[in-house]
Amino acid sequence: MTNRKVGRDITVLGDSLEVPGIGFLPVNAFVLHAREPVVVDTGLGLPDRDFLEALGSALDPADVRWIWLTHPDRDHTGGLFALLEAAPQARLVTTFIAAGIMSCERPLPMDRVFLLNPGQSLDVGDRSLAAFRPPLFDNPATVGFYDDRSRACFSSDCFGGPMPSADLAGGGEAASVGAEDLRAAQLLWTSVDSPWVHLVDRDRYLATVAPLRAMDPEIVVSTHLPPAVGIADRMIETVSLAAGIDPFVGPDQQALEQMLAGFEPGGPAAPAPEGAVPVTPT
Q1: Segment 236-268, tens digit of pLDDT
Q2: Cα 171 from chain centroid?
Q3: Residue 135, Ramachandran bin (φ over 0: left; ψ between -120 and 50: alpha; else beta)
Q4: How far is Cα 2 from Cα 206, in angstroms, rounded to an integer?
Q5: Strand pairing of 219-222 and 152-154?
Q6: Secondary structure element (H or E) that encloses residue 221, with its range
Q7: Facing residues of 259 across strands?
């Protein structure tokens, strides 16, 4: 995982996953260096990731006071229980639905849960974080927030997009991607992550985008996009195009078998020469 600052108050803990045929998908978590420090999501749970070690390069986990879980998908919860143990004073900010989903796998310490819904705010000592439902999401428990002190919008999966390289996905900046390439990546991700959006009424959908314009963020951070500084207007325009987009259709079994054959040592077996007699091993 990489560690880099965005603005004065935000550390990005960057990671990525390769998606064959699509690119490299960023998988970010964040630290908001408020008076009461906030960790936003906790990364992947793969065996070769150590979220606490990555977090420790940004601040002492024991100093964390709030863990904001934007939603309980596995790419957001990898280090959650280790962090709860390492940060005994931290409260877990989530929703009733998310707490229920998480409890299907492992019980949450309910005395440390802080339930917060879109439209409500969280006081973290030197600022108030305004919770909202992003216009694009893949989980009904999704809640992002806006920090008016840093002018940063924490958007969860919204605005995501696969990148052409692991270095860009895990340690780059969205503004370094060409405008058309970024738009195409974000619309591709929308078709994958929010396939329901092709069914929505356009006007009602655009009403959910309007709060983003009202925020007028300087910084947009997404779990699945490199941090974006100074390009929020065109990113919001891209999100506005999502209504009616065709949902992504992934590979089928035949395509999977072709891919697996390509992974065999030496590649797919060459066809036998014409007239050759097959030999059966004994």
Answers
A1: 999 999 999 999 998 899 988 988 888 766 554
A2: 14
A3: alpha
A4: 35
A5: parallel
A6: strand 219-222
A7: none
